[in-house]
Amino acid sequence: MFSSKHSSCTTILVGKKASYDGSTLIARNEDAGDAVNPKKFVVVEPEDQPRDYHAQLTKFAVKLPDNPLRYTSVPDAVPGKGVWGEAGINAHNVAMSATETITTNSRVMGADPFEPNGLGEEDLLTITLPYIDSAKQGVQRVGELLEKYGTYESNGIIFSDVNEIWYMETAGGHHWVAQRIPDDAYVIAPNQTGIQEIDFDDPDSFMYSKDLRKFARDNHLNLTNHFNFRKIFGSDTQLDRHYNTPRAWYGQRYFDPESVKDKSPMSNDLPFICHANRKITIEDIKFVLSSHYEDTPYDPFAPGADYKTVPYRPIGINRNQQLSILQLRPNMPSAYSAIQWITFASNPFNVLTPFYTNVINTPDCYRDTTETLDSHNAYWANRLISLIAADHYQALMADIEDYQLKEMGYAHERIAQVDKRISEKEAAGSHIVRALGQANARTADHMMKATEDLLTKLVVKASQDVPGSFTREHY
């Protein structure tokens, strides 16, 4: 069976009544098995979308519809190893993030084995996002594909539109469930099955494979009188308690400390649906998805800490490859309401850049990522920063935090400026798509200049104190 190389992501979902401005917000780190896995940010036009899709890492193949929508994607930059599109927004302002690799148990795998040549994370965004008009329709399409072709792994798949967020989890090779996230709630999903009690009489809140209840009953999977998807289809292992659960604990602690005051990082009963003690911002999501147990005994960057002995896996880690926060704003015209906030490499050391998605291309410094190092490219510049900063954390983090604060301020200011200018252009009948593309290019130029300046500063500072340093003062 093929095993996903992108296997340790972290997801945050924020309903429209829980967010700071009424947007639906879905976000996910893409973490690879290796520290370096170059990514790029692209737009896929309908004429470039395949009609006969063939996976590159398995024998999965499917004929796709003839009417794809334009969409954004964050695929691998190195060709020949699969698409791994990961996160994007289509021309109808439907967002998708795929996938949050999750866990299952041996009894489920025995009852419904994985399909070695089924669909998986490599494929899901490409074969789904161009063909859906709503978040719920995304669940329906993937559900049909799962039941027909099966999957070779367990995954959580996220869909959103301006009104709803749906989170979908697979179980075994062909079964699945999806839950609509309540508008006033948030979710943190850390590589383990999350959905809990299912109400089979509430089609507005739950969707599932046709035979889900019968499958669980016939195979003696449900050990209780309730239908708790996590307990039936998920896992509760030593790996979960050290690798997965602590991430949910830390995120819930950040959004409402009281909610976990009686819980430990290894608690196996943390809730799936949560409520924060305040409205949630883009900065909040970025902080949690960059976090490494700050202000706890488990921080691998704390003075004197040995990262090799820290008991819990952080969220912000060297294997972060890209982070996309997909924002669908209800208070703006649909022509420019969708924004994909994106950044590359290790999240404790990078900053988000906002891009409008109703465009026909992306800026070259985010689009044309090379297989070999190029410091003028967003992925590689951020990878270099993360490499230097991790080895000189205490000495360099003040500079990085100054950069992050300043450039996030710029990002919000930039959105406000572009919204105003595009609104004026719209009234004058100008071409919004072209104007948004030009605005994205200017935003990217600014962010790359700031990032290259930071990289230069860090190289200069770090070079002053390395093994082999020697000055005349040593005499």
UniProtKB/TrEMBL annotation:
A Pfam match: Peptidase_C69
Domain of life of the organism encoding this protein: Bacteria
Reactions listed under catalytic activity: an L-aminoacyl-L-amino acid + H2O = 2 an L-alpha-amino acid
GO MF, one annotated term: cysteine-type exopeptidase activity
Protein name according to UniProt: Dipeptidase
E.C. numbers: 3.4.-.-
Keywords recorded for this protein, A-Z: Dipeptidase, Hydrolase, Protease
Enzyme class (EC, first level): hydrolase
GO terms of biological process kind: proteolysis
Protein family: Belongs to the peptidase C69 family.
